[in-house]
Amino acid sequence: MSRHPNPIDPKGSLRKQFAYTLRFFRMAHDPSLSQDALAKELYLTRGTIQAVEACSQAPDMGLAIALDGFFGTGELFQGLVHHMQREHLSEWLQEYLSLEAEALQVRTVHSYVIPGLFQTVDYMRALMKDARHPDIEKGIAQRVARQAIVTREENPPLFWVVLDEAVLLRLVGGRAVMHAQLGHLLDLMELPNVSIQVVEMSAGEYGQVGSFIHLDLPGRQVAYTEAAAGGRLLQEPREVSELHVWHDRIRLKALNEKATRDLIIRRRESVT
Question: Model's pTM, two decimal places?
């Protein structure tokens, strides 16, 4: 007896809408057409369709084009992917985290808080407590594990970090926590693969675009933008390139590394 597939709620997100639409057309085309059989028809790796229908793998434009061609659906699947890639979802963070460890270079701009990879445990705890994180200790353990890429011995990524001065002025966790956090930034600046620069308040406007991360990966580039209700992983080359340019333009407004170090030292002394 064949097993009924797990139901998909198309109202949950555009990714779920894509999965629902894919299953609908697969079953309408031929009720006996299995997920692996469709993958074979499209010259895809076995299990690809199963993963997309289970929403454990994000569909890309290549898959959408293949599905539109196979089912004769014009640009239906392509349109779903286009809009899905612009949707803010918590799932995008997991996609980003799966890529982070592969990065060759990390370019980031942060306007509100210290980036997660550079946070102390007490700083993390203060942020997570304020955000009412459902499991603070688990969240801290996961973030600390991610931080291993900063100091790993074999090919650590190059980090090009730009911070708004407001990040240094915000007393996250109180004076003692912030004092230790600023000291940690100074220690990280001693690493050969870490560059930190600060944009002073006096620099004026610089096209504030919030916080984002740009990753250079082997063979491609992606970017991640943060948002309160869920971030967004950018994979379209034009959009990713635009954030690369934004990063470089903002760096032009920033202090050099020596001046940044001096500023952090002064700020650290002021919260003693």
Answer: 0.70
